[in-house]
Design goal:
It contains eight helices and four strands; from the N terminus they run ααααααβαβββα. The chain is α+β, with helices and mostly antiparallel strands. α7 links the parallel β1 and β2. α2 crosses α3 (42-49). The longest helix has 19 residues, at 2-20. Belongs to the ATPase delta chain family.
């Protein structure tokens, strides 16, 4: 828990610095690149988490991978190394993206379905999210065949579960109670 609080503090500091330098969008792009790189490469993730790998080696690898990164991003890497908090890099980057989206009035609507979403359905979801929250959203589609049918919509702290699996589970609980 303290790791996530620390990540949010670092993310807020980077966002503040990027706002002062009028580079929030560029830094947001860097942070998305960092989260995608770490999520897509288990070796990179393990290297960042490893206490055996020297900090100088970690820094060299990160600067080689993100050589086109903004100064604020490279400064973040330096600060995390200096404070021995480099394992938080992925959490800091995702926290920054979340804070940036909040700043811009955007949010992520996570839609879980059994089959891929069509463009028509995606438009309907965006309209419903705008109606419910008053904010624009970006749809993140997740496919999970275990829900059988229907959908699960998550926007921020709100979750609406209209999946067939959920309805069957409710029926099962209803019959076992009687």
């Amino acid at each position: 828990m303290s790791g996530s609080r620390a990540a949010i503090r670092y993310a807020k500091a980077v966002l503040s610095l990027a706002t002062d330098q009028k580079s929030t969008e560029v830094v947001n792009s860097d942070m998305k690149s960092i989260t995608n790189a770490i999520a897509g490469n288990e070796d990179l993730n393990q290297m960042l988490q490893s206490p055996v790998v020297r900090s100088s080696d970690k820094k060299a690898v990160l600067l080689a991978i993100f050589k086109d990164a903004n100064v604020a991003t490279t400064n973040l890497i330096d600060v995390l190394i200096a404070n021995k908090r480099l394992p938080l890099l992925n959490d800091v980057a995702s926290s920054y993206v979340h804070l940036y989206d909040q700043l811009k009035g955007r949010q992520i609507a996570s839609v879980t379905t059994a089959i891929p979403l069509t463009e028509e359905l995606k438009t309907k979801v965006l309209t419903k999210v705008k109606e419910l929250t008053g904010k624009d959203a970006e749809v993140k589609s997740i496919i999970d065949e275990s829900i059988i049918g229907g959908f699960i919509l998550r926007v921020g702290d709100i979750q609406y579960n209209a999946s067939i699996a959920n309805k069957l589970d409710k029926l099962k609980r209803e019959f076992t109670l009687n």
